[in-house]
Amino acid sequence: MSAVPLRNNKTVATDVRSVTVLGATGSIGDSTMDLLRGARDRYRVEALTANGNVPGLAKLAREFGARFAAVADPARLSELKEALAGTRIECGAGESAIIEAAARPADWVMAAVSGAAGLKPALAAVDRGATVALANKECLVCAGDFFMERAARAGACILPADSEHNALFQALASGHREELVRVIITASGGPFRTWAPADIERATLEQALKHPNWSMGQKITIDSASMMNKGLEVIEAAYLFALTPDEIDVLVHPQSIIHGMVEFSDRSVMAQLGVPDMRIPIAHCLGWPERIVGPSARLDLAKIGQLTFETPDFERFPGLRLAFEALRIGHGATTVYNAANEVAVAAFIAGRIRFGAIARLVEATINDWMRSGNLAPLGSADEAISVDHNARNKAAALLPQIALKAS
Which of 176, 302, 305, 316 is 20 to 30 A removed from 397 (C-alpha atoms)? Predict the structure, then answer.
């Protein structure tokens, strides 16, 4: 049985649902806490975590009466204890404390810890059969096969919190898995959608950070500009919904109103629409299997006027092509894809490589990894983290020659 509930699995919601938010002070966490703030009668906060923002974490823990608060940086424990002095909130610090937060008895867990550091906490929630709203890409991109298998074995319910995957989740409810022909993930096209290849090659950091529709963090905004983010979403969709690469299409949709579509065997196409606001998919996950009242703006199609679509250009945006190739290779290739991209983006931010070299470094790292013969299936979090670590080292070693070629 799939860990993603696709149809007719509606359960009765409890009067008060206990929730844990991993990554409470990040952008996804902020949207989640905003929704919880508007529905205090329906939710009780069990645990909150943050990477290093102790003042923000302590403020939220006090506001929501959390039972446990943890910071990832072990050196900040005394600071957190001081910030929560006079309360009955338990404190912790370091990786083990973040995992403890995920393992505590909350009905619903938002997994929004970014990077590979989010894998083990998410698995801790999965292993106790919790409902997990998944906003961490690495859980699936780095470890999709065994992550979903463990979720199914534990009886955990995985709800996709990304806008595109949540849209597919909602649209898939209109049919059965055997009736599915393909899913269509939409992409805004980012700031370079109409740019010539030579201009994309030389794009500056400032230009890459000017996303036309979404307000996001620096890394994800650059990924959107390169369409690497869409490649990561393709990989996530494959693992979330047990899809082959041939069952996934990407369609450029500059208005970012349709977030995902599903085509069924009778040629019906079901779509989920909404204004660009991450609170919409998070609200769907938070209320599921019911719906809650959300604060997002209403969709006014008459005001928007038109919705347009384009085929993605793999030549100008090779990062998207590489995602499909990594999926077909399997056996950790998607882990390498993600790790190399993170190294490449950091190098671009630091001014060490051109924007166009991001995809070239990812491709070079995947090719080198394949030549090494490391094609064993990943069977644990430690194995996935090891491949991630090795791929980062390899990408860093290849970086000088990639930078030289682009100079």
Answer: 316
